[in-house]
Amino acid sequence: MANPRPLPIDPLAEAKRQWIAHGWTDAAGGMTAVISIMRAQQLLLARVDAALKPFALSFARFEVLRLLAFSRQGRLPLSSVVSRLQVHATTVTSTAERLIRDGLIVREPHPHDGRAAMLALTDDGRALVERATDALNDEVFSRPGLSETDTADLVGIVARLRRDAGDFTDPRPLPDPL
């Protein structure tokens, strides 16, 4: 996704200039913000993908494994995985099937609901997600490309955007601010 060499101009600055030139001044700042976030997501996802490639994991597969590894017993109901990852059930089911095929998780019956399924981490899955997490921490998360202050400011701004869009509500009592 990244260019082999930087462009001579910032295409988003040029897009903003064009927006203003075409009379869309009121929308120019918002367009620039939205497209900037989308481009940053592409750049960061490329780094994440590169860090996970040696483990044959997509970020979606990593997220399922990491979520299960964070749980107390290495297992969660499928519905909880869907809810916590905020993706469609079909996506989680498809991702889970690939992880099952690769021996990284197993599907188990739910202990209290015969209609529901549990996803459980295998020993191989736990070992892989720990190695992949170390790689992500080392190659991406410990050096996101921003100073600590800018990182904290960005997380706070994006958290407000997400909250105001209805992505979550502030829990009570409030945790430390992002």
From TrEMBL:
<dbReference type="GO" id="GO:0003677">
    <property type="term" value="F:DNA binding"/>
</dbReference>
<dbReference type="GO" id="GO:0006950">
    <property type="term" value="P:response to stress"/>
</dbReference>
<dbReference type="InterPro" id="IPR039422">
    <property type="entry name" value="MarR/SlyA-like"/>
</dbReference>
<keyword id="KW-0805">Transcription regulation</keyword>
<dbReference type="InterPro" id="IPR036390">
    <property type="entry name" value="WH_DNA-bd_sf"/>
</dbReference>
<dbReference type="InterPro" id="IPR023187">
    <property type="entry name" value="Tscrpt_reg_MarR-type_CS"/>
</dbReference>
<feature type="domain" description="HTH marR-type">
    <location>
        <begin position="30"/>
        <end position="163"/>
    </location>
</feature>
<keyword id="KW-0804">Transcription</keyword>
<dbReference type="InterPro" id="IPR000835">
    <property type="entry name" value="HTH_MarR-typ"/>
</dbReference>
<protein>
    <submittedName>
        <fullName>Transcriptional regulator</fullName>
    </submittedName>
</protein>
<dbReference type="Pfam" id="PF01047">
    <property type="entry name" value="MarR"/>
</dbReference>
<keyword id="KW-0238">DNA-binding</keyword>
<dbReference type="InterPro" id="IPR036388">
    <property type="entry name" value="WH-like_DNA-bd_sf"/>
</dbReference>
<dbReference type="GO" id="GO:0003700">
    <property type="term" value="F:DNA-binding transcription factor activity"/>
</dbReference>
